[in-house]
Design goal:
Elements: E1 4-6, H1 16-19, H2 23-27, E2 36-40, H3 42-50, E3 55-61, H4 62-65, H5 70-79, E4 85-88, H6 90-97, E5 105-110, H7 117-121, E6 126-131, H8 136-149, E7 153-156, H9 166-171, E8 181-183, H10 193-204, E9 208-212, E10 219-220, H11 224-228, E11 232-237, H12 245-250, E12 253-256, H13 268-278
Parallel strand pairs: 1-4, 3-4, 6-7, 6-11, 7-8, 9-11, 9-12, 10-12
Antiparallel strand pairs: 2-5, 3-5
Helix pairs in contact: 8-13
Pfam family, one: SpoU_methylase
Protein name: RNA methyltransferase
GO molecular function: RNA binding; RNA methyltransferase activity
Length: about 290
């Protein structure tokens, strides 16, 4: 049986990682070693554990510790001994999170090592590239759509929100631990990771590239040429500014989603779901 430590003071040092450290501080907490992230809700935590992420501590709403969270804690502590499990009343958890958790459970976890771009793309037919998508809610929603529709991986350019930020992971429903992903890194000669170096790497691996953008010379996302591509990278840009002109200039296709009723565009997360569905290969994943 696991040992519970009740926290009654919001200022207790055990709560620092949950309440007082920012996402960048958590990322760099053990520099130059891997930092940590916070997973929120039993489903997200369970998917992170199944993906091999190592827990460092738990913070659980007092009633949940002996209820819904009990089995998950027991399974986890059977593998990793002596991990602290802190409990607190809902009022303290609400103060930490900023809103009332419906299934109050948090876990501080060691960040996993990221694969290379080439490892993500090996054997992949459909991938998404996110260019400077800075809103973590949008990043999480894109990952959820990518998982549901069966994309093979997600690549992120510098400037994107980290998929392991708490909000992104929560909105994704933990699919950030199911879909392979990584960031583009700088080239060996110090060249910027994106778009030039990144585009060349995609091309070298046999990918054709399709930029989702509103331009006069764009083709419809329903165009059959897209579905017929053996390997396709669908590139989505940040809200407002969209994709960089340099990125679009290097792409094989400029693609639009047809709109009605005078609507000019969709939110990038909604657009991603439509685009992923249209270019799918028919081999959608079914992992839970």
């Amino acid at each position: 049986m696991f040992q519970l430590t009740e926290i009654t003071d919001f200022n207790a040092p055990e709560l620092d990682v949950y309440a007082r450290l920012s996402e960048p501080q958590l990322y760099n907490l053990n520099a130059p070693e891997r930092g940590i992230f916070i997973a929120e809700s039993p489903k997200v935590i369970a998917r992170a554990l199944r993906a091999g992420c190592r827990p460092l501590s738990f913070l659980v709403e007092k009633d949940q510790a002996e209820g819904e969270a009990a089995d998950l804690l027991a399974q986890c502590l059977e593998r990793w001994k002596n991990i602290p499990v802190y409990t607190a009343q809902m009022g303290i958890l609400t103060k930490i999170i900023g809103y009332k958790l419906t299934r109050g459970m948090l876990c501080a976890m060691l960040r996993p090592s990221l694969p290379t771009v080439e490892e993500i793309c090996r054997g992949a037919r459909r991938i998404a590239v996110l260019e400077r998508v800075m809103n973590p809610t949008n990043v999480g929603a894109i990952f959820r759509s990518a998982a549901a529709i069966g994309l093979d991986g997600v690549l992120l350019t510098p400037g994107c929100s980290d998929p392991l930020y708490r909000r992104a992971a929560r909105v994704s429903m933990g699919t950030v631990f199911q879909i392979p992903w990584t960031f583009f890194e700088k080239g060996k000669d110090g060249e910027d990771a994106w778009p030039g170096e990144g585009m060349r790497r995609l091309c070298a691996m046999g990918f054709r590239t399709a930029a989702l953008a509103l331009r006069e010379d764009s083709i419809s996302i329903e165009d059959q040429r897209l579905k017929q591509e053996e390997r396709l990278a669908l590139i989505l840009g940040t809200e407002g500014d969209g994709l960089a002109a340099e990125t679009m200039a290097d792409c094989d296709y400029i693609v639009r989603i047809p709109m009605g009723h005078g609507v000019d565009s969709l939110n990038v997360a909604a657009a991603s779901a439509v685009a992923f569905w249209e270019v799918r290969t028919g081999s959608a994943a079914t992992k839970s």
